[in-house]
Amino acid sequence: MILRTALLVSSLFFASPLLAQGGETPAPDGAKVYFANIADGDTVSSPVTILFGLSGMGVAPAGTEKDNTGHHHLLIDRAPFGEGEDGAEELTYGVPADDNHKHFGGGQTEVTIDLAPGTHTLQLVLGDASHVPHTTPVMSEVITITVE
Predict the structure, then answer these.
(1) Vertex 108 angle, CA 107 and 112, to 5°
(2) CB 129 within 8 A of CB 63
(3) CA 100 to CA 133: how far, in whole Å?
(4) Which is it for strands 58-59 and 43-44: parallel, antiparallel or unpaired?
(5) Per-residue CA distances from 124 to 5, 6, 31, 37, 129 (Å)
(6) Is 0.85 surpassed by the pTM of this model?
(7) Residues of the signal sequence (predicted)?
């Protein structure tokens, strides 16, 4: 009995990082968010129009609790989401709102944004009604673009 309890406790301990992989809102298997009109390595001019692509889910404004939906967040010039200063913890709370985290809580699927000349990293993160990434976060790869 003691051995079985020890195994159960240790399995929960080692599984805990897996439990911290997003908020409580589930995302369907295979859901993807991506940049629809720019790609890693592209050179663009400012202002930059960015189209947000989404498959396997729908878009709904922030505050809307509807299964298999979310809204977009654009991350600019920061570490990949879930790997930053707060690491996996940031996957379990709302995406911040600042110069590096742009919210599209109205359900927008594109933006035209001024970016300074130089190299920039971009990533898309889908958030639930409360701006929290879904269980199994729906995030794009980080891309790097150059603005002329």
Answers:
(1) 160
(2) yes
(3) 16
(4) unpaired
(5) 42, 41, 13, 13, 16
(6) no
(7) 1-20
Structure tokens at 24: 């409580």
| Residue 38 in tokens | 């720019």
Under a CB-based contact definition with an 8 Å cutoff, are residues 129 and 65 in contact?
Answer: yes
> What is the set of domains in the chain, with CATH numbers?
22-147 (2.60.40.10)
Give the DSSP letter string of 3-55.
HHHHHHHHHHHHHHHHHTSS-SSB--TT-EEEESS--TT-EE-SSEEEEEEEE
Which H or E element spans position 144?
strand 143-147
In order along its 148 residues, the chain shows pLDDT tens digits of 443 333 333 333 333 333 335 678 999 999 999 999 999 999 999 999 999 999 999 999 999 999 999 999 999 999 999 886 666 677 888 899 999 999 999 999 999 999 999 999 999 999 999 999 999 999 999 999 999 9
Nearest to 18 by CA among 139, 138, 140, 135: 135
